[in-house]
TrEMBL record:
Coiled coil: none annotated. InterPro entries: GAF, GAF-like_dom_sf. This is GAF domain-containing protein. Residues 22-151 form the GAF domain. Gene3D superfamilies: 3.30.450.40.
Length: 154
C-alpha cells in the first residue's frame, strides 16, 4: 500500500466539497488496483447509490447505479457489515458476484462496508485485473478508509 496515497485520501476528505472521484482514484492507486466503486446508502432505504466509479464499462452503469443491500459484492458487504472478497471474480461460483460483474473483466476484488459507530453509510469496492487475495493489513486499511469516509457522511 502506498503510504503517500493513503495520506492523500485523508487530506482529500478534509476538503469541502469532497471530490469523491479523486478519493476513489487515490484509493484504487493506493492498493494497485484498476477498478473501483463508491456507493452511499440512501437515507431510510436499503439502496446503495453509486457516488463514484472508475473502470466500470458504460453498459454496466445502469446495473451498478443502485444496488439493494444483500445483492452483489457491495450489497452483501453492506448486509454482513464486513468485507467480501474474491480472489478471482471471473471463476467464482459462490453466487456472491452478480453475473454482470464478470463483464468488468476484473479478477481480484474486495468490497468493504463504510461503517461508523455501528451504522452503515455505504460501500467501497476495488479490484485488480489479475487474481489476487488481499492481505489482512490491506483489508484493515480499506475498512479504516471506509470509516474515514463514513465520518464525513455522518
Amino acid at each position: 500500500m502506498d503510504i503517500l496515497k493513503r495520506e492523500s485520501i485523508s487530506s482529500l476528505l478534509q476538503r469541502t466539497p469532497v471530490d469523491w472521484q479523486k478519493v476513489l482514484s487515490d484509493c484504487i492507486s493506493c492498493f494497485g488496483c484498476s477498478t473501483g466503486t463508491l456507493h452511499f446508502l440512501v437515507a431510510n432505504t436499503d439502496i446503495l447509490k453509486l457516488q463514484a466509479q472508475i473502470g466500470i464499462p458504460q453498459f454496466l452503469l445502469p446495473k451498478v447505479s443502485q444496488i439493494p443491500i444483500g445483492k452483489g459484492m457491495a450489497g452483501i458487504a453492506a448486509e454482513r457489515r464486513e468485507p467480501v472478497e474474491m480472489c478471482n471474480l471471473q471463476t467464482d461460483t459462490s453466487g456472491v458476484a452478480r453475473p454482470a460483474a464478470k463483464e468488468t473483466k476484473v479478477e481480484g476484488s474486495i468490497a468493504v462496508p463504510m461503517m461508523l459507530d455501528g451504522n452503515l453509510y455505504g460501500t467501497l469496492g476495488i479490484a485488480k485485473p489479475v487474481p489476487y487475495n488481499f492481505t489482512e493489513n490491506e483489508r484493515n486499511e480499506l475498512v479504516k478508509i471506509g470509516e474515514e469516509i463514513a465520518k464525513h457522511l455522518a
